[in-house]
Amino acid sequence: MAGRKQNSTYTRNEVCIIDCDLTYAVHKLGGRWKLLILDKLCKKKMRFNEIKKEFSYISERMLTLQLRALEEDGLIIRTVFAEVPPRVEYELTEMAFELGPILKQLSDWGGKQRSSVKKD
């Protein structure tokens, strides 16, 4: 931790997350559904119910938690419109748009690896 004074509030994990770029990225994107949500939002802004329809196998609570975490991490913007009933839209931040090519590469890699696995 060059140039930073370590105190007792830092745990080993926090130091690793702060100082290791790969660990920082994995921490921000880690979570069972975050990558899939980000991939859908790469295409367009979406309302909660639209996202829910795309991922019917995710509980509402889990989807809400994942969306909150993505918002807190600065990867999505949540916009609430003053309408009745209230309308909420989710969209990617500029920082998250940079993930588009990376998500495509991960998808391509996954497809290649999945197709190379022998099916019995």
TrEMBL record:
GO terms for molecular function: DNA binding. It holds the Pfam family HxlR. PANTHER family: TRANSCRIPTIONAL REGULATOR, TRANSCRIPTIONAL REGULATOR, MARR FAMILY. Residues 20-118 form the HTH hxlR-type domain. Keywords: DNA-binding, Transcription, Transcription regulation. This is DNA-binding HxlR family transcriptional regulator. The keyword Transcription applies. The keyword Transcription applies.
